[in-house]
Structure formats: C-alpha cells, structure tokens
Amino acid sequence: MKNGFFFAGILFTLAAELAILILFMTYGTEIPQNTVAINEVLQTLESDWGSLEKHVTPTNLDYTVLDLDGTVLYRTRSGLSESIFSAVNHRDTILNIQAEDAIAGQVLIHSGEEEFLHNRKKAAVFAFAAAALLQLVLCGTYFLHIQRTVVKPFQKLKCFAERIADGCLDIPLEMDRKNLFGAFTESFDLMRSELKKAKLEAAGADAAKKELVAKLSHDIKTPVASIKAAAEVAAALAADEKTKYTYEQIIDFDFSLSSTTFVEFNLNSYDKGSKYYRVGIFGLLDSNDNLLDEVYVDHNDTLTAGWILPAGSYSLEYVSCDPGYKQTVTVGYNIVESGTSQHQMIPSDSRSFETAGNISIGGKTTLGVLFWGESLIKGEYLDGHYYKINVARKSSLDILLAGYGTTGLGIYDANQNFLQSIQTNGTSTDPDSASLRTATLNPGTYYIVVLCNGSWAFSKPYQFSVKYTPQSIAGASVSVKNKTYNGKTQKASSVTVKMGGQTLKAGRDYTVSCKAGKNVGSYKVTVKGKGSYTGTKTATFKINPKATSVKKLKKAKKGFTVAWKKPSKAALKQTTGYQVRWSLKKSMKGAKAKTVKATSSAGKKCTLKVGKLKGGKKYYVQVRAYKKASGKTYYSGWSKAKAVKTKK
Questions:
Q1: What's the pLDDT tens digit per position in 34-76?
Q2: What predicted TM-score, i.e. pTM, was given to this entire model?
Q3: Which of 23, 198, 495, 581 could make a disulfide contact with 591, Cβ separation 3.0–4.6 Å?
Q4: With helix as H, strand as E and coil as C, how does 268-320 read?
Q5: Whether residue 320 is found in the same domain as residue 432
C-alpha cells in the first residue's frame, strides 16, 4: 500500500469528523411548535374543564393539566413535567386555561426538546464511531505494511550484524531488492567479505609480531629495571624543599549530584615517609573551588568520610603533607542515599542557629553525618548540626536518636536557651540509641542541635526523628452535621474534631466510621485516633423529618386558617405530626404552638383553624414536621414565616 493512500484516508476521516462536529454545533436546537394543535388542545380543555376524566386529547401532543394549587388533574402519559418549575426547566409551553371568565388552571405542553437532542447526540456518536473505526482499520493495515517492508528486513540485518560480531564471516546475507533495505543489504554483504579478508591478514601479522617480541624481550628487561630504581632514588634524595614539592602526589576526584544526597568516601593512605600524623589531607571543594570541609590522614590510615550535599558539582582533592616520600592513595565513592525517600537530609553547612534547616515534626527521619569539628568547647572540637522545628500545638515531643560514639542532641527555645538533651554511648563500630520525651512545649519555634565529642562519632552517620507525644482523643469535642430524610441511605459526612482549641485533620489525626441510616432517628459515629492521637470517641448524628412550608393563610374573625404543603407518601411514613406556631413578633418571641397529628382529620388535610386571637392584628405563622422514634422526638426545621391579619 502506498503511503499517499494511507495519509489521504486519514485526512478524509478527520475531515468527516470535523464536519460532523461543525454540523452538530451549528444546527439549531429549537423545535417549531404546532400552534394550531396547541390551540386545539387549549380549546378542548376549556370546554371539558368540569369533566376532565372524560377528556380525550384531540392531537398527538403530550401535556399535563394543573389546577391553581399545582395539583395534577390530567396528563397524557407519565414522565412529563408536573410543576411550573419543571416545565420551565424543560422549555415546555405554559398556557392558562380559562373557565367561566377566570383562570382555572394551566396546561404544560411537552416540548420534546430533550428527545430531539438525545437523538441528535446518538447520531453524532454513531458517525464519530464509524469514522474512528475506519481510522483504526487504516492504521492497522499500514502497521502490517511497515512490519512486512521495514521491521522484518531490519531484524534480518540485526541477526546478520550479531553473527559478524561473533566472528562468523562465512555465511552470506540473504538479499531482497524489493524491500527498502535491498541495496543496503548488498553493501552489508560486501562488508562481510572485506572483514573476512582483513581477519586472515591480521592473523598472519600477529604471528610475525609474536616472533619479534620473543627475540627482543631479554634485551628490554634490564634497561626498564634500571630506570624505575633511578626514579625512586631521585624522589628520596631531593636536595631542597622546592624540589620535594614537585614530587607531591595530588588526586582530584570530580563528581556531580542531581539532588540532595548522602555521599560516603572510603579513604586509604599507605606511605613510607618520616611522619606519623597528618601525612596527607583530603579537601572537599565546590564548583567555585571553595573549601567546604577537610580531613587529615595519618600514617597508613584508613577512614570513612561522609557528607550531606545539595545538588551541584564537587571535587575531592588529596595533597601530600610528607613530600619526597612515596604514597599510595585510594578513594572509594558510594552514594548511601539520594533524594528523600526514607530520610530528609539537610546540607552540611547548617551549623549555626542562623543557618538552621527546617524539618517537620512527624515527618521523615532526619539523617546527618558528623565530621570535623567546628566549635571549640573546653579545648575540644565539637561538630554541630542545627535544625529548626515549628511546634504547632501545645504538646510534648518524643525524640529518638541513633548514632556512633558520643553523639548528643539538645533542644533549645526560640531565644536559643537550652532546655533538655540526650546522648548515645556507642563505639566506632556499634551504634547506640537514646530517647527523650520533652516537657510540655508551647506553640512556637524551637531548635535541635546534634553534636559529637570524640573520634568514634566523626565521619559516622546519625539519625533522629521528632514526633508529637501521642494524646488520647477521648477528651476531644466531636460535632457531626445532621441530615434530612430524603428516602436514601445516608452516612455522616461533616465531622469536626477539636482538641485543645485546635481543629484536627481527618486522615492524619483520626479516622471516622459510622452506621448508615435511611429512616428518621439517631446513628452512632466512632472517631478513632491516628498518628499523634490514640483512643476513640463516639458521637451521633440525626436524620430529621423533611421540612414542610406554609401554603396558604386565610384570615378569619379573631383568627386564621393555615394550610401547609402535603408530604409525599414516603415522607408521610416518617412523619408523626406537625407543629404550628404563631406570634405577634416576626422573631417568634412569645409564640404559641399547637400540635396536629398526621392521622387526625386536620393532619390528613394539612390544615388548622386557629381562633380566640386579637382582632385586627398581624400574626406571623410557621409550621414544622416531627417524628417519634425509639422514645425520642425528631423535628424538621421551621418553615419560613408568613403573615396574616385577623378580622375584628
């Protein structure tokens, strides 16, 4: 198949998909209404208004008939709009029905727009699917074409190259001039022939060379030994200091880091000099040749040096301090940990309160290397690393330290005043651990300082962790947002846990489990501590009855009649009755109330007549539903207050 046919097919299907998309976006969505049929429906309903049970639709239009209270009186089929609000959302036609020169109700004529849009979307999806299927077939066919004309010939070339690499030069390469590699395979076979020829020539030359070396080896051995001995004597007998330094050995080991990394070096020095201490020095330099740290090696010394370094380029250089004497120096390089997968690492220059690096409480374990003294205290050099922590709540801290030799950890307040400390008592080969539970700390900034005293801790790693001391969550306050009955199974969703004036975080500080419920009632919620918190705390949430609303208020002599919205059948099962209250004040202060059972005559009609009030006064009226379950009464929220003025 030619490449042009494939790309033409792809462009054709893309154009078809674009055309379908443009057609779908620009085609109008409004459906013209049949005004003649609508008028015929309206006239028929007006004539049949008193006997809608005998009404027969004169057209194929679907519609719903409502009275002025919104009650459905007639509908041509189910699934139609049954309220003005629903009709507006569905873009239905809404017309008033006249009866006896007054508006008696409304007719909601179904627009059919949703069905129309659904059919259009279905057609567009089908067209897109067909175009995509065609693209898939074209791509599959082209893939098979590439496999046959490119991949398989290339695999043959690969196998041939592997045979050549193994020294098999006798088997020729099969050639097919019809594929893309026809001429290229012929060149490969010519190369095989030339390599075979060159191999035979090289074998002959090698045999001649071996014969020549055998003849000259005896004559070369004696001069080489003499030159080596002369070089060692010259290094040992250098007359002046300037000449000695020309024989210093300098090692320059360069390396780069892409992230904050713990690097470790195994340093070995073997010498035949006159000194015992400080026969050489290793220096760690940055990319600008600034000296970051240094370590001396003694006579025939072996030690380990480690640093926590940020990303960048570095060099480790060695300079002999015993010039004129032969030294053998080796450097072993090892990356202990890169990045912050298990530990968090702060660069080694965090060696003062001012440069302290931030670490998080409850986060990853902090890793460091104590190497080479920075502070002179009582005549001894002490290495120090400084860290800053932020205590977010009033609590004590649990600190765990592990290290070699005498490794100490102290905690200081924001003013650098010493508070408490711990230390390890290990050796150079066996680490030790120590733990500390601090006194109760107020929220604020604190510092942690790690020091070592003695060679056993130098160049050795240490690690420590800082966590809040676990607290029991039993003393916390738990609030759960209540639910309203909706006929569905519900769980607690808005749970707030506070302790010591602080709002705890779900998932980090606690988890929530609860029993789901559907009917009106109370349901248990269990809060379980996590991380820095332990124990459990229980609470409850309620599912309350569905609220109702005042539908109509009719004034009467020294009283009024109130009607409220009837609940659905499902909501009625979760309703024991209603409470109606009234007051002369909008704030409902001093309100009087009356209870209406749902099974009573007034409760079934959702109406109540209230009398013996003051005449000519304005009263504010509210209503709510209630349900009695398991010995408890659950109330819905009060409806919006409506006002009515009584007759005198």
A1: 787 788 877 887 777 777 777 778 887 888 888 877 788 788 8
A2: 0.43
A3: 581
A4: EEEECCCCCCCCEEEEEEECCCCEEEEEEECCCCEEEEEEEECCEEEEEEEEE
A5: yes
